Amino acid sequence: MTLTYRFISLIGGSSLLFKETVRQIFRGKYEWNATFYQIYAVGVASFPVVMVTTMSIGMVMALQFGIGLAKFGGSLYIPKIVSLSVIKEFGPVFASIMVAARVGSGMTSEIGSMVVTEQVNAIQALGTSPIKKIVVPRVVGLFIALPVLCVAANILGVLGGFIVGVHDLGLDPMFYYQKIFETLKVSDYLSGFGKTFFFALMISVFACYYGLNVKVGTKEVGYATTKSVVTSCIAIMIGDYFLTKLFWLFEVWI
Amino acid sequence: MAKEIEFKNFKKSFGQKAVHEDISFSVEKGECLGLLGGSGAGKSVILKSLIGLMKPDSGSIFLEGQDITLLNEDEMVEIRKQVAYVFQNGALFDSMTVFDNLAYPLREHTTLTESEIEKRVHDLLNEFNLATDDLLYPGELSGGMQKRVGMARSIILGPEVVLYDEPTAGLDPFNIRRIQEMILAMKAKGVTSIFVTHDMPSAFACCDRIALLRKGRIVHVESVEKLKQNDTGMINDFVNGMTA
Ligand SMILES: Nc1ncnc2c1ncn2[C@@H]1O[C@H](COP(=O)(O)OP(=O)(O)OP(=O)(O)O)[C@@H](O)[C@H]1O
Ligand SMILES: [Mg+2]
After folding, report:
1. Domain for residue A36, yes or no?
2. Domains contained in chain A, number
3. A112 contacts: CB under 8 Å, gap ≥ 6
4. Which domain holds residue B165?
5. Which atom of ligand 1 is nearest to the CA of B48?
6. pLDDT band, very low/low/confident/very high, at B232 (cuts 50, 70, 90)
7. Residues B3-37: pLDDT tens digits?
8. What pLDDT, in 10s, does the model give residues A89-145?
């Protein structure tokens, strides 16, 4: 009962928040400085974490497939399998999960603390919109930064596979290199990359929703932060399934 | 119609807890109304409702004859430019310096140039005895300093109505005097105000009338003149700690 209620208020509340955010983007003068700051805080600061994660994923996958496929003499498929899975799934999804954990949690706790210290009330009391001042720069900032991070994640994931393929599995570097570009299509790339725009919206809108819904006390900020990260991660996973299906239908249709 | 504030049958509860049963009172144009009441009586809720930070469950709040409970967020923006709320704890933006905090309303709502803003901010900081603190962050200020910065930020646009939420609490006598002088100066300019406080000397110095809030109602309103003359009655009992 309470779970259903919370689920419905999450969906309803964040939809309303998103609608108001879009409306506020086009009202009055746009907050470029705050947006650039967010792009920097999200993009540049998350780069190392995303880099390490996706590179490791690429390396581990190459190793696993290398061991598995070697038994059947299928080592030659490693470049294709690893690069394709990184670009279509692991790069975008892992980059988003890491950003949800790192940035989403930061957003929720920062906004939650602003609510508790009445800074959000103050923005409103001074005749300005908290959505415009707080939510818009974060949503737009992540919408720009996450796809860029995804590009880096894809490159590093593929590079990780390449390193292991050449170094540990003894594949020829030129061969590996050529295979990557032979097998990957632009549509493969876009179907992974395209998801990150949706993930960026999910992460930032949920993070802001939970932050703004803190009522009193710093303890609640902690709960809200946890909920924000869990919700974003689940939404990314479930959303991934539907987005994959959607892109797939789209590809077939084209 | 003269600018004035009027609460009519204002009701507000949080969950099961009814904070305000039935609040009705009014403030005349240019008047300063003192609002007394125990801690948790709901004084801040009354002030916040007046600028739309909270919505009443029922009842009306008139400002210059207009029921502000019927306005939407966009329409409230115009109200908030004229009605300043001085937060109890300052509510400063902790990511900005004192200077930027004060400059915020000017940058948002006026077309002043940066140098004009600078002058305005420094003049006001001077008046609040904060002249050398403009580049500090709120976290580097004492509680009393934060309060004064908060008050300065609230009134920098030259509002027509000011709602003071315990502006003198936690200040030293010298700064209390300064705040009293500021409030009187605002009043001399014709500003209408509600002054929530537990500090009776300040209330007596600044207010025209004093209202007592208890158990969700305004139980008594009395002019300061009369209160000074006789020391009996509900408000004096409250002041002297006879009742809560
Ligand atoms: N956002 C809120 N959610 C739930 N309850 C609230 C909220 N704001 C205020 N209350 C409740 O309303 C009552 C009145 O609060 P308010 O802050 O107006 O008191 P106050 O008269 O200003 O007290 P003080 O003198 O201590 O500042 C309190 O009991 C408080 O618990
Ligand atoms: Mg209060």
Report:
1. yes
2. 1
3. A210, A211, A214, A220, A221, A224, A225
4. 3-243
5. 18
6. low
7. 589 999 999 999 888 899 999 999 999 999 999 98
8. 999 999 999 999 999 999 999 999 999 999 999 999 999 999 999 999 999 999 999
Residue with CA closest to ligand 1 atom 10: B14
In terms of CA atoms, which chain B residue is nearest residue A117?
B91
Selected residue of A30, A126, A129, A135 to mutate for chain B interface (largest B Cβ count, 10 A) = A126
CA distance B96 to A128: 16
Report the chain A residue with the minimal C-alpha distance to residue B154. A126
Which residues constitute the domain of residue A178?
A: 30-253
* Calpha distance B107→A28 (Å, rounded): 13
> Among partner residues A117, A118, A125, which is closest to B80 by beta-carbon distance?
A125
Closest atom of ligand 1 relative to the B15 alpha carbon? 4
- Partner-chain contact B87 A121, CB within 8 Å: yes
Task: Give residue A106 CA to ligand 2 midpoint distance, Å.
Answer: 29
> For residue A59, is it within any domain?
yes
Instruction: Specify the CATH number for the domain of residue B77.
Output: 3.40.50.300
Strands B192-196 and B32-37: parallel
Phi, psi (degrees; rounded to nearest 5) at B166:
45, 60
pLDDT in tens, A40-63: 988 888 999 999 999 999 999 999
State whether ipTM is beyond 0.95. no
